[in-house]
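G., before I forget:
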Amino acid sequence: MNLSFEKKVALVTGAGSGMGLSAAQAFAAEGAAVALVDTNESAVRTAAEKLAASGHKAIAVRCDVSDEAQVKAMVEQTVATFGRLDAAFNNAGIQSAVSEVADASVEEFDRVNAVNLRAVFSCMKYELLQMRKQGSGAIVNNSSLGGLVGIAGRAIYHAGKHGVLGLTKSAALEYASRGIRINAVCPGIIDTPMVAGMLASQAEAMKEMMRDVPIGRLGRADEIAAAVLWLCSPSASFVIGQALAVDGGYTVR
Ligand SMILES: NC(=O)c1ccc[n+]([C@@H]2O[C@H](COP(=O)([O-])OP(=O)(O)OC[C@H]3O[C@@H](n4cnc5c(N)ncnc54)[C@H](O)[C@@H]3O)[C@@H](O)[C@H]2O)c1
């Protein structure tokens, strides 16, 4: 099993918190130079400084991934700093309010999916421009259990997360024979600041969802990071276009 990222460069969006932060720390621990990307500049700066202080190579990049020009600049800054791009975890995402479709708005649809879907496309586009030049690389997109099943009241979020899997599978086929692997993770309910917010603001809906988690607990961010690192590593060299559920059994019921 080879999980080493020595001499490799990794980029993580949404690295200021939750699964993104955990994945960035895990990439660094395995030897990668890491670009930590987020709209929350102080969070990524603090995290990058901590990594640098313990001997890792890390930069913080302020970037709103829903803005294509910022995404282009962010990938270019990463490559200018570290010379290449070997792994990317397109993870930044936001939640949507619980609402049935008839009461939801196109403005909310566009707000959420500018980040959760369109930005994954933009990030892949600029990452792949670099990886295509290199003839190597691995990308993991963060979808969700919401990419695999529907839940009443969550159509806007689930539409974007299903879309991420469509992007993942189609792009995976384009690059499979050119040394670039693209996959997705589909986390279940993970104990992050996003879920803490949902537990507070959508207590009833969340209680109902939690009843459907066979393992009987929330997931941890490091359990998702472990899957992301494996998918980006040479150990997953034959894994292409998969949507890997890491969900405590939620989607196998
Ligand atoms: N927590 C869960 O249970 C869960 C389950 C399935 C999927 N997900 C997905 O996992 C991903 C990470 O979620 P998390 O729970 O770690 O959330 P989180 O809120 O803890 O972290 C998300 C990070 O993304 C950043 N971000 C938000 N919008 C951004 C933008 N436009 N540009 C750049 N950065 C931006 C935030 O500042 C934050 O640091 C999201 O895509 C989310 O939809 C979460």
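The chain is about 45% helix and 15% strand. Residues 13-14, 16-20, 38-40, 43, 63-66, 91-94, 115, 142, 144, 187, 189-190, 192-195 surround nicotinamide-adenine-dinucleotide (CB under 6 Å).

More on Monday.
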